[in-house]
Amino acid sequence: MANLWHSVRGVQIRYLGEKRFLFQFYYVMDMDRVLKGSPWTINNHLLVLHKLQWGEDPLKVPLILTPFWVQIHDVPIGLFSKNLAVQLGNFIGKFIEYDGSNLGKENRNYIRIRFQIDVRRPLKRKKQIMLCGNCTYVRFKYERLLLFCFYCGCLGHNDSFCEAKMALGVEINEMGWDLSL
């Protein structure tokens, strides 16, 4: 990770046990750049980062929240707005920021937002919205999505190792999620 992050003065990495590591940066700008670049992965596994506050025990911090970028597709013309982006971001997780920089350029017909997701919960696929009394759906496409279960919709494992699927004890042909995410 240290080679990938290219920090100016380096980073000290210490293994704490229980699958936890402490990353100590020597410049705040290096740490901020790494946090802003999340999500990061190691061997296809999500690296959940948390900026420690003074007095926090790194072994007791719940590592359950991570930021993601998502593209929101099939938004009706005229509804592209930061207000809608905030509402949808809070539906998926917790809204962080709206990327309106390339809106309308290069045939980009989606809203792009960054939000914080709880990795224990299934990913949202779509959301029904009302427009002039008519119902329509917007679809979510997650950027840099890696190890993911098509059966239960959760991050961190695939359908071959899904506890929910194994609990049924039968082979399931129908998956709840697909590659459109």
TrEMBL record:
Protein name (Swiss-Prot/TrEMBL): DUF4283 domain-containing protein
Domain DUF4283: 1-58
Domain (Zinc knuckle CX2CX4HX4C) ranges: 117-163
Pfam family, one: DUF4283
Species of provenance: Gossypium arboreum (Tree cotton)
